[in-house]
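Chapter summary example.
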Amino acid sequence: MVEFDVEKTLKDAQAIAQLLNINEEEAKKATGTYVFKVTSVTRIEPVQINQELFDQVFGKDVITTKKPS
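The structure predicted for these 69 residues follows.
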C-alpha cells in the first residue's frame, strides 16, 4: 500500500485529477491523505520486429515483411 498527502505531493489540479481519476473541479477540492493498494505491476519491454512478432500478432506466416505491399 502507498499512503500520501495529496496536497503535499502534487500542486497541479490536472495532475491530481489524473492520479485520482476525477475531474479537475473535484481535484481542486481534494485534501488529506490517500491510500493506494497496488494490485498489479506490469512491465513493457521493446520487442524485435521479426517473423516471430508477425506470427504472434497476425498468425503464422500471414505477414512476412514489414515493407508495405
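To summarize the output: Helices lie at 6-9, 13-20, 24-29, 51-58.
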